[in-house]
Write a structure and sequence with these properties.
It is a single chain. Helix content is 45%, strand content 18%. It is α/β, with parallel strands linked by helices and 272 residues long. It folds into 2 domains: 66 residues, Orthogonal Bundle (Chemotaxis Receptor Methyltransferase Cher, domain 1); 190 residues, Vaccinia Virus protein VP39 (Rossmann fold), CATH 3.40.50.150. A 7-stranded mixed sheet has the order 6-2-1-7-8-10-9. Strand 1, helix 6 and strand 2 form a beta-alpha-beta unit. The longest helix is centred in the N-terminal third of the chain and has 18 residues. Bound molecules: S-adenosylmethionine (SAM). S-adenosylmethionine binds next to loops.
Length: 272
């Protein structure tokens, strides 16, 4: 087992924090060391200092992505925190489709989309809601993450049966195609309605020309310290249309007074 010194841990934490906003507190030291062991062994590194140098010098960006994959979790599933999707279907979609009935333009962002289950759930709800009118709308969802590995799975849109077993049967029939014995592929129509892009939420500049009607950023900010989180929420606020919504994870919270958003229901906020 390769151990980490105080200085090495401090250097690594500082790098991850300043570039990716991820907070590796002292409490996470054992977890980090454990999760990174394989990478060190596979690459024949004798110390975390060697590993650190390799990560910061790697120009392909692959080393840092592997590091992030180890220290964060990409766990997600279809219809996660289902009440959010219910609210989206019952309140958010009727409101925004009415508001945007002339432009027929819905702008939804799944920030930290992992392997795609969240944006695909949204795309299926939108498809059900708009029905035949779908082709006349631009309701594509922007879905971003820093993990290339997760985005690759997301773009392919192929999931094992146990990942889709809990979704409604009519969704299975309508939006999935069996591609191997135990694997199912999201229909082309739904895949085409999600645009997957790599994007680090810590980037100073957000490259979006227009504001969003809805932002989902759920179970992502759990890694960030308060300062990083507040800065990000401020940016989300600036990029939310008036009347637009922010969804965060149920185990997360935002500072209601500072953020500017109005609390609507657990983990749902609105810009008024
Ligand atoms: C637990 S998953 C959440 C997936 C989905 N939103 C959900 O709630 O099920 C967290 C995702 O956040 C991504 N993430 C963490 N830090 C990020 C950052 N700085 N920029 C973009 N994505 C980030 C991770 O790569 C991971 O895929």
């Amino acid at each position: 087992m390769i151990t980490i010194t105080e200085i090495e841990f401090e250097k690594l934490s500082k790098y991850v924090k300043s570039n990716y906003g991820i907070n590796l507190s002292e409490k996470k030291k054992t977890l980090v060391v454990g999760r990174l062991q394989n990478i060190l062994v596979q690459n024949n590194f004798d110390s975390f200092s060697e590993y650190y140098d390799y990560v910061v010098k790697d120009t392909t960006g692959e080393a840092v992505v592997n590091l992030l994959n180890k220290i964060t979790t990409n766990h997600t599933f279809f219809m996660r925190e289902a009440d959010h999707f219910e609210f989206f279907k019952e309140k958010v979609l009727p409101f925004w489709t009415e508001q945007a009935k002339k432009s027929k333009d819905l702008r939804i962002w799944s920030a930290g989309c992992s392997s795609g289950e969240e944006p695909y759930t949204l795309a299926m709800i939108i498809s059900d809601y708009l029905g035949d009118k779908m082709p006349s709308w631009d309701a594509r969802i922007l879905a971003t993450d820093i993990s290339m590995k997760s985005l690759k799975i997301a773009k392919e849109g192929i999931y094992k049966y146990e990942h889709i077993k809990d979704i409604p049967d009519f969704w299975k029939k309508k939006y999935f195609k069996m591609c191997q014995d135990t694997e199912y592929m999201v229909s082309e129509r739904i895949r085409n309605n999600v645009i997957f892009r790599i994007f680090n939420l810590m980037n100073e500049e957000f490259p979006f020309k227009k504001k969003f009607h809805v932002i989902y950023c759920r179970n992502v900010m759990i890694y960030f310290d308060n300062e990083t989180k507040n800065k990000l929420i401020k940016k989300f606020y600036d990029y939310t249309e008036t009347g637009g919504y922010l969804f965060i994870g149920h185990s997360e919270s935002i500072n209601r007074e500072e953020s500017g958003y109005k609390y609507i229901m657990p983990a749902v906020y609105r810009k008024e």
